[in-house]
Automatic annotation (TrEMBL):
Ranges annotated as spanning the membrane: 27-46, 186-202, 209-230, 242-261, 288-308, 314-341, 376-396, 518-536, 543-564, 576-595, 616-643, 649-676
PANTHER family: MEMBRANE PROTEIN MJ1562-RELATED, MEMBRANE PROTEIN YDGH-RELATED
Compartments in which it is found: Cell membrane
GO cellular component labels: plasma membrane
Domain SSD positions: 221-339, 546-674
Family: Belongs to the resistance-nodulation-cell division (RND) (TC 2.A.6) family. MmpL subfamily.
The protein's name in its UniProt record: MMPL family transporter
InterPro entries according to UniProt: MMPL_dom, Mycobact_MmpL, SSD
Keyword rRNA-binding: no
Membrane topology: Multi-pass membrane protein
Taxonomic placement: Bacteria, Bacillati, Actinomycetota, Actinomycetes, Propionibacteriales
Keywords: Cell membrane, Membrane, Transmembrane, Transmembrane helix
Length: 688
């Protein structure tokens, strides 16, 4: 087999004709006009804006969401609670200190908590708290007010005491602080990583600038178009949406660019005219790129079926981003490249007559030859390795409490932990019962629920009553979850009565995530399989490719679980990670298989199935490996943001893409093709 591939490349060439968009007189127009129009849209429109709602992150139709909707009908629906905590560095606070704190709390607008005034002293005497309403209409205003409150407390802090701010308003403010300037930081780091890897890939001081510029403009245009569309359709998105969109556009767009430029370089070794070479390269690249982009877009659009509004917004935004990225790579990038001569590849400029499309001396050819000699052994060995890696899947736990959402420990979380040492754990963030039923009857029912420390009406209006319920158990524990479930069970007889708050929302988030996975994961698989069936017009190859991607996902989740729990000391996975990781790994992971097998099909027409796969591996090995490493590095950049969910998502995808690129696409898929031969393409026949 290896001997056959040493023969000169006699593959029939497509007719040497130049695409109208790539002609000498038109290329500059096709290259510059879209860039200028994109610049005008970016500068003129800017990113879309929409008033964010607390309901954006809550699953529609669930009990906590229904409760939040009732809470929005209260006259003071724009208020949130900040809990001020004073702790003594030397022991008991003393009555004189408590009286001074009461006056300070009153000046801050704290609400009375009983006959003693706005300040409540702990039983051990080492801590005191006051609840300060934060009247805000947006997350930005809430963050500003909490910052002002902290500054005022620090300025007036009594000697020997430490003041901190926690509670729902402070936690939301600290979360907003995580994203302050984050989009810019993430964009700069992503662009820097892409630039470095392109420079290392091409080893040219000039060439890397062209795809980076085109993809960079596509990224900014995608952010503008996506957010404007979301705002027009009133679809929710959150602070992380644009960041994930940028990572996806840079990753996928650069992957497509690498594939195009690699094929262009090969064609320049055959054709003297760069315009002819690029025309052929675009025709040969368009099918796998469009197939890949279509698969990713369809997969992303399945997120529209999620019950979480912000997840639906993420799916739609990223789908728009992939469309923009593919369009720029297939239209703008080819025209931009042909404006320059071969010198743009300096110091490795291709020359006509050089060894071209298949390098039989490459490491990829040697790997392919080795795999071809014993394909069954490589299939078996690779599957065993992936199965061992996937063993961690059986131990995965999902669901993180609020304290575990941050990589860094913000003041609100640290203060909540300290508060729990001196007060009932639920004081800083009580559960909330929202009802239209008689308040006294609901209070009586709540009082009988195990785990409830105390309850009281905190707000009334428009026929709605809010009852704050302090739970004795710490947030995120089984006891606190059981108490919320018991609350809901006891309140079932009351019409239009719902339990909301952080713990209730966490329970519903887990249930909604399970519902989304059950619905969306099979649909993604079906769409990917359908895309491959249409592209390859075969049955066996698509089924095997989908199976290999599933194996990659299981292995990456399994190995990531060991990394998270053994090395990074996480308690579990965020509820959203399994679904998003599955989407990106399956939709993006199948890209490399598409790039490989479409080239293998092309080669098989001339050389037969087995030799065709070997030649395809030799031809695409370098570019696909570069693309995979680049995509893995780009998703790892999500760790720039100190949020656990993004760090976990980036880690899983990084590991999965590397597995897919270096193991599955390099060894497993070729081994299956070598083993099956023509049966790999059944029922289609190849000519060799």
């Amino acid at each position: 087999m290896a001997q056959d591939t040493q023969a000169p490349d006699t593959r029939s060439r497509p007719q040497a004709r130049i695409s109208p968009a790539l002609g000498r007189r038109t290329a500059w127009l096709v290259a510059l006009l879209p860039l200028l129009l994109a610049g005008a849209l970016i500068g003129g429109l800017g990113e879309g804006e929409r008033d964010r709602s607390p309901l954006d992150q809550l699953p529609a139709g669930f009990d906590s969401t229904l409760g939040a909707e009732l809470r929005d009908q209260l006259p003071d629906e724009g208020s949130s609670a900040a809990v001020v905590l004073w702790t003594s560095d030397e022991g008991d606070l003393g009555q004189d200190v408590v009286a001074d704190l009461g006056r300070q709390a009153g000046s801050l607008g704290a609400v009375p908590s009983g006959p003693a005034g706005p300040v409540t002293l702990s039983e051990d005497g080492t801590a005191a708290i006051a609840v300060v309403p934060i009247e805000s209409t947006s997350a930005t205003q809430n963050a500003d007010l909490v910052t002002e409150l902290r500054a005022q407390l620090s300025e007036d802090e009594p000697s020997g005491l430490t003041s901190q701010v926690t509670g729902p308003a402070a936690i939301q403010a600290d979360l907003a602080a995580v994203f302050q300037g984050a989009d810019t930081d993430l964009l700069l780091v992503t662009a820097g990583v892409v630039a470095l890897l392109l420079l290392l890939t091409y080893r040219s001081p000039v060439l890397w600038l062209i795809p980076l510029t085109v993809v960079g403009v596509a990224d900014r245009l995608a952010a503008v178009v996506a957010t404007q569309v979301l705002a027009l359709l009133d679809v929710a998105w959150d602070e992380s949406t644009v960041g994930i969109l940028s990572v996806l556009v840079f990753g996928a767009g650069t992957n497509y660019a690498l594939l195009l430029i690699s094929r262009y370089r090969d064609e320049l070794k055959v054709h003297e005219s760069r315009h002819v070479a690029m025309s052929i390269a675009v025709r040969r690249t368009a099918e796998p790129v469009l197939a890949s982009a279509t698969t990713v877009v369809l997969g992303l659009l399945t997120l529209l079926l999620s019950v979480v509004p912000a997840t639906r917004g993420l799916g739609l935004a990223c789908a728009i981003g992939i469309v923009v990225a593919a369009a720029f790579v297939l239209v703008v990038l080819p025209a931009a490249l042909v404006l320059f001569g071969r010198w743009v590849f300096w110091p490795r400029a291709p020359r006509v007559g050089e060894p071209g499309l298949v390098d039989t001396n490459s490491s990829w050819h040697r790997i392919g030859t080795l795999v071809a000699r014993r394909p069954v052994a490589f299939v078996t060995g690779t599957l065993v390795v992936l199965a061992v890696m996937a063993s961690g899947v059986l131990r995965i736990d999902t669901g993180l409490d609020q304290a575990d959402q941050f990589l860094d420990r913000p003041e609100a979380i640290a203060a909540a932990d300290r508060l729990g040492e001196s007060f009932p754990a639920g004081v800083s963030d009580p559960a909330q019962v929202m009802t239209r039923a008689p308040a006294d009857d609901v209070l009586a029912a709540v009082a009988d629920v195990p785990g409830v420390q105390r309850s009281a009406v905190s707000s009334q209006g428009a026929g709605v009553t809010q009852i704050d319920v302090v739970l004795g158990a710490a947030a995120g524990t089984d006891e606190s979850r059981d108490a919320v479930l018991a609350l809901r069970e006891s309140l079932e007889p009351f019409a239009d009565t719902h339990v909301t708050g952080t713990e209730a929302e966490s329970l519903d988030e887990a249930d909604s995530a399970a519902r989304d996975r059950l619905l969306i994961l099979p649909l993604i698989l079906a769409l990917v399989l359908a895309s491959l069936l249409v592209l390859l017009r075969a049955v066996v190859a698509p089924l095997l490719l989908v199976a290999t991607v599933l194996a990659t996902y299981a292995a990456s989740m399994g190995i990531s679980w060991w990394v998270f729990t053994r090395l990074l000391d996480f308690e579990g996975l965020d509820n959203g990670v399994p679904l998003l990781a599955f989407l990106f790994l399956v939709a993006l992971g199948v890209d490399y298989n598409i790039f490989l097998v479409t080239r293998a099909r092309e080669e098989a027409r001339e050389h037969g199935s087995r030799v065709g796969m070997l030649r395809a591996l030799s031809a695409t090995g370098g570019v696909i490996t570069s693309a995979g490493i680049l995509l893995a590095a780009v998703f790892a950049v999500l760790g720039v943001l100190p949020l656990v969910v993004l760090a976990q998502l980036g880690t899983v995808i990084c590991i999965g893409v590397l597995l897919d690129t270096l193991v599955v696409r390099t060894v497993l898929v070729p081994a299956l093709a070598f083993w099956l031969g023509d049966r790999f393409w059944w029922p289609r026949r190849v000519i060799g």
